[in-house]
Structure formats: structure tokens, C-alpha cells
Amino acid sequence: MTEKKEQHTIDASGKRLGRVATEVAHLLMGKHRTDAVRHETAPVEVTVEHASKLLIDEKKRQQKIYDRYTGYPGGRRELNMQKLIESKGYSEVLRKAVYGMLPGNRLRALRMKNLTISE
Fold first, then answer.
1. Are 25 and 48 spatial neighbours (Cβ–Cβ below 8 Å)?
2. In this structure, is residue 110 part of a structural domain?
3. Staple 82 to which of 61, 65, 113, 118, CB 3.0 to 4.6 Å?
4. Would you write out the chain's pLDDT as a tens digit for each of its 119 residues?
5. Phi-psi label, residue 89: left if phi above 0, alpha if psi -120 to 50, beta otherwise
6. Overall number of domains in the chain
7. DSSP-assigned beta bridge partners for residue 55
8. Which residue range(s) make up the domain with 42?
9. What pTM was computed for the model?
10. Is 2 exposed, middle or buried (0-12, 13-18, 19+ CB in 10 A)?
11. Residue 80's CB: how many other CB atoms inside 10 A?
């Protein structure tokens, strides 16, 4: 028996990045539901519209650093938020923010599949 998924739509225009990301993470974890359990993904789909209209300060665009490691010696790669926006768009910035707010367990990837972001 598959449960019908709840549809949630969030308009991100004129809102701060962190405020939208916490709201999305809260919904994806199912904390708004009375039957919420930690060991299952909630039957929820979240759509974020107008991600390109998020309010992000110019200082944050220059100073926020996303880093990753290639696995090789000296393989640390840094990218600031402005370059990430130029290459992959605002949706990737929001996706990374939500990803960081979800618990780092086996359900994280499954919960992220229920997120759709449109610019």
C-alpha cells in the first residue's frame, strides 16, 4: 500500500536562503505530520519556485566557500557562492543548504529525491 504524497509548494521570492532551506528540510523530514517517524521518509514532495529571487547578500556571495576533496594529495577544491551560482544556478545553492540541514544518515538521499527546485 503506497500512501499518496503530500504536495507542498514554497515561493522563495524575497526570502532569505536559510529561512527557505529550514522550512524545506522541516517538511522533508516530516516533522509537520502527527505520524512522523525518524526511520522512514515522509510521504511528502516539496517544490520550491523562484529560487533565483532569493535574497542573498553580496558579502555572502563572495565569502561563502564550498569545498570538496578529490581524494588525491593536494586535491582540495574551493568554490565561492558567486561562482557556484554562475556555473550551476541558484537551485544548486538551495540544494546544498537543504542537504546540509538534513540528518546525515541513509535517508538523506531518499529525502532529497522528494525536492524539486525551479528557478
1. no
2. yes
3. 61
4. 567 899 999 999 999 999 999 999 999 999 999 999 999 999 999 999 999 999 999 999 999 999 999 999 999 999 999 999 999 999 999 999 999 999 999 999 999 999 999 98
5. left
6. 1
7. 16
8. 6-56+91-117
9. 0.93
10. exposed
11. 14
| 91-99 long-range contacts, CB within 8 A, separation 24+ | 91/51, 91/117, 91/118, 91/119, 93/17, 93/51, 93/54, 93/56, 94/12, 94/17, 94/20, 94/21, 94/24, 94/48, 94/51, 94/54, 96/66, 97/17, 97/18, 97/21, 98/21, 98/24, 98/25, 98/28
Cell of 26: 522541516
Is residue 53 within 8 Å of 14, Cβ to Cβ?
yes
Rg of the Cα atoms in the chain: 16
